[in-house]
């Protein structure tokens, strides 16, 4: 039961999409998932054609039901190591074996350590204007400075509102930065952000070190994206083909945010599908090689080995 054609590590959009393709290809597939999706704090998922506005948990539940219909196993757990062969060890002590591996472990968002920020993350402290901008359109919006891409982030956010403030925080704005922000009518609020003011279950404002409080409707923050690629790097120096997901480690594929931190849900799902197709083709090639009869030269070598062993006896 623990022998599989493919074990998919990670049960997000990329991993489940790959499992669907492989299940439909009549492969023995297991998906191991730790149950910590990146978009869990968000109330809705946007930008996925036909699934726009769907809660992330509902999307995952539907996907798991679909793949179960093709015999794919869902295993709740965390893979702690993968050794060549492939043997996967889980934190629970369980061991799985597979002919091929697909790593789809996603990423985590590292956000500034500002009181109140984590509490409102994915609700009215947002990261992606393409994911959330339409829902907060035409409202007063803020963008937190401090990250290398914060100014560009503010220029993008301006598309959804005429009232955008750039909170400089720790960001050292250059003259060119200020000119670019001014060109888009984005005002700059200088000063360090001390905390977010939360009133009950509502984001009520931003407190600055100067004692002033500004109250945008929502705050956009550019997080540091940390791919969950520990398993990949543990297998060696990994290079991933962006088109197929095939890595430089034979028998290992990767897809989704683990290799493309900017991939949205729909993009990650597509990458998972592409990786599964390439992976299945590779399995077919091995199946053909395994089924081919020995060549005459191979038969002679086997006969010689058997004869030598017989003479020694």
From TrEMBL:
Which transformation does this protein catalyse, written as a reaction? [thioredoxin]-dithiol + NADP(+) = [thioredoxin]-disulfide + NADPH + H(+)
The protein's UniProt keywords, in alphabetical order, are:
Flavoprotein, Oxidoreductase
Q: By its UniProt entry, which Pfam families does this protein fall under?
A: Pyr_redox_2
| Keyword NADP in annotation | no
GO MF terms here are:
thioredoxin-disulfide reductase (NADPH) activity
Has keyword Oxidoreductase? Answer: yes
- The FAD/NAD(P)-binding domain sits at 4-269
**Name used for this protein in its record:** Thioredoxin reductase
